[in-house]
Write the structure tokens for this entry.
Amino acid sequence: MKFAQIVGWGMHVPDKVIGNDAFVQMGLDTSHEWIASRTGIHERRFVENGQPVSDLAVKAAQQALQVADAHPSDIDLVILATCTPDQVMPSSASFVQHRLGATKAGAFDLNAACAGFVYALSTAAAQIESGRAETVMVIGADELSTHLNWQDRTTCVLFGDGAGAVLLRASDEPGIMASTTGSDGSGAGLLEIRGGGTLANSNGHASNGNAFLTMKGPQIFRWATQKLGEAATKVIEESDLTVDQVDLFVPHQANLRIIDAAARRLGLPEEKVFSNVDTYGNTSAASIPIALCEAISQDRVHVGDNMILTSFGSGLSWAALVIRWGTPIPSSVPRWTPIRLSLETRVAAVRSAFKKSQRAVRATIGERLNKDGD
Ligand code: ACO
């Protein structure tokens, strides 16, 4: 049996840091004390100057390639979990595939909101286990700041922007051991962005004010504390593990109180729970891969460790999976690897420019021939 093993990882967040006091300075009726005590969030990052989500995703994916010492042309599939794509079509994954120079890869976006990265990992693992793919790039990237209503204190203080990526490769050793995904569309109205879809756009009504994220926070809170624990228990049992054998719990980083409540339900001590919601806020599909990267850099992940990833979000949707960590953590990236990857990226850009001009020439010749035919 083949397993999917994480062999590379990377993250990228925008430079612009927004502390809690920035909201007070904007005139919002809130305070650092309220935000920090009710959510655990101290600061978050926001994109500037229209930086698209694909840009964050490419940077995270390039790091994952570096860590794995892999070539973009090794990638069979790029799955980008996002609910804030660059545009409605094509998929942002296509932009990422192209910019990485992943010439052999298929690419698609997956939208399960904040649960998207774990959904994408589960999908990628199935591709590898079935033998349809050998190497898959899985990215979680979101820019919810582009949908926040700065007058709504119940939502705008909670979210941040960022991207995280892992490279999965087929292996004889586990790997991703079990996963579960779930959805309950009866709760769709609890957390939504209504603009941008066919409902909002039909009859030329465009998005108007519907581009803002709206949320019934307390209802999500109650549901999430229960769901995180339930989903984790399910995958722990399916992997024939006990809670004592779990070495690290990496939950979706939405609210420290939700994380603490879920860990208590599972009976996990604090030292087995990873959280960095204080620094990034809720980065949606990026939250788990960013947390994973930081857990690795803080020496909290070791070969043989059993890790639980659990996520929840708009949908309502949720997902959880168990990973037996199998890749030694490299102390440094070989010096020539970034140089090689930067060269490969430039070659991809030149190849892209060449293909575009080839297309333009073909189109012009086609038009001329058509005219001559008339
Ligand atoms: N500053 C000051 N006061 C505030 C703020 C704020 N930023 N936000 C809300 N309040 C007020 C409310 O208006 C309310 O005032 P009132 O009592 O006068 O009416 C009071 O604080 C208490 O509000 P609650 O909503 O009951 O506060 P709660 O403790 O539930 O915290 C929160 C709210 C943080 C939103 C919490 O419910 C939560 O985290 N819910 C889960 C949200 C979540 O995880 N969403 C992401 C899902 S993932 C995805 O797919 C994107």
In short: The chain has eleven helices and 13 strands.
